[in-house]
Amino acid sequence: DSAAAAQIPIVTSEVEAARVFVDMARRQLNDLETGARNGDWVPPGAFALAYAELQDPDETLRWLDSMRVGRDPGIQNVRLNPLFDFLRDDPRYRAWEARLSWREPGAIGAATP
Hints:
Strand content: under 5%
Oligomer: single chain
Largest sheet: none
């Protein structure tokens, strides 16, 4: 939204811009963790997105698996969201994607050979 966009500082280099986005992702992650500690329900997808912003493959994959196990409806967007592109060649990501229920034979909506 425009209020959030107005808070993004003006930067003069790609390195500086990357640093700003990392700082924003860390603040978002801190807010998510605080909410969870306070008993608020925080969807696993929110954590997965925050860790993807930080390009942390281990934590991103951990939260992606939580999305799968918890049947987070946002899981449908993972395959299309460019934030997760840094994981696409990781064998752990490919194994995670292969375990998605709609990819299993006999699952509702699964493709038939």
